[in-house]
Each structure stands twice: as structure tokens, then as C-alpha cells.
Amino acid sequence: MSSDLLYVSGDGPPAGLYRDVIGFAYDTPGWVHTLAEYGTEGGLLVLLSLLAVACWRLRRAEPRALAPALLGLPAVAVAYGISETVKVVVREERPCRAVAGAPAPIAPCPEPGDWSFPSNHATIAAATAVAVVLVWRAAAWVVLPLAVLTAFSRVFLGVHYPHDVAAGAALGAVVVPLVVWAAARPGTALTARLRARAGYTRPAS
């Protein structure tokens, strides 16, 4: 085991919690396993689609209101990039290989070198949900629970530790507001210029 590879032994609290979740997962019906396998990717697609809908809803809004919606996807991309960078630096082995005595994961264990910490799925799910809520608060009751379920599915399927998912979700939830806030002024100015160049005028109310 290389010295720069983070390894969680089979006896520590993270491994014990991972075993508990996997044990719970194996006690659920097979259709729940199937739903989790499809939902782990499908949840991200639904969240990203809702972000697109949020942008569409504000297409006629003033640049100051539209800019945060348009900045949502770039902010999610920034969060993902940070998550991927942390993975390469930390290099935590996947629990489906590292935890001794744990049941086989429900989903296939990712290939060696596809590190575990933090969870990219959790990062993207939380980041997208927050990006939606920033510009469409009424959608919070949909996107926030969906983000939680999507993130939890990574542990349920056996490919992440709970702390991977918690860290990824926290990263996504923090980065998106910071990026939107930092880029709000130039984003608003750019949106206004693009609209002016396109000859857009807001319809009279």
C-alpha cells in the first residue's frame, strides 16, 4: 500500500458505518436495488433538467435576475472540478475494495484509480440543487430531497463511504453560492450586453 493512498481499515468507524448501510441495502427488495442503480444517474439528469427549466422561467427577466440562473451550470462545473481535484490529491480507495469482510456492493465496484473521496455524484447533486434553489425557491421541496437521495444512493450501492457523500454534498452546497456571488456583477453586465446585441427588449407589462 503506497504511503500517499488513504486506506480505511475494516475496523474503523467509517468502515463500520459503511457495513451498516450495505447490510440495510441487502435487506431491501430487489426492485429498490434496481431503482437505486438507475436513480444514481437519473437523479443527476433530473436535477440538471430542473436547472434548465429554472433558466427558461427567467428568460424574460432583467439581466440582474437572469444572470444567477445562467451562472448555475458553470458553478456546478467548478464544484465538480474541485471535487475531482481533491480525489486525485487524497486518493482514498473505494470501500468496495478496502473494507474487509463487507458484502459485495450492489453496483459494480469502480476500477482501481477511480478514487472515493469525495463523491462526485454527491457534489453535482448538491451543487445543482442549490443552483436551482437560488433562482427558484419553490422548487426546493423537489430538488433538495432528490439531491439527498441521489447522494445516499452512492453508499447504498456500495461504492462510497458515508463521509465521501457528506463531503461531496458540502462541497457542492458551498461552492455554488460562492461562484454565483463572485460572478454576479460581470455575469449581469455580460447578459445585458448580449441581450442588447441581440436587439432584445423586455415586453411591456
Automatic annotation (TrEMBL):
InterPro entries: PAP2/HPO, PAP2/HPO_sf. It is found in: Cell membrane. It comes from Streptomyces desertarenae. Keywords: Cell membrane, Hydrolase, Membrane, Transmembrane, Transmembrane helix. It is a multi-pass membrane protein. PANTHER family: DECAPRENYLPHOSPHORYL-5-PHOSPHORIBOSE PHOSPHATASE RV3807C-RELATED, SPHINGOSINE-1-PHOSPHATE PHOSPHOHYDROLASE. This is Phosphatase PAP2 family protein. Gene3D superfamilies: Phosphatidic acid phosphatase type 2/haloperoxidase. Residues 66-180 form the Phosphatidic acid phosphatase type 2/haloperoxidase domain. The chain crosses the membrane at residues 38-58, 124-153, 165-184. It holds the Pfam family PAP2.
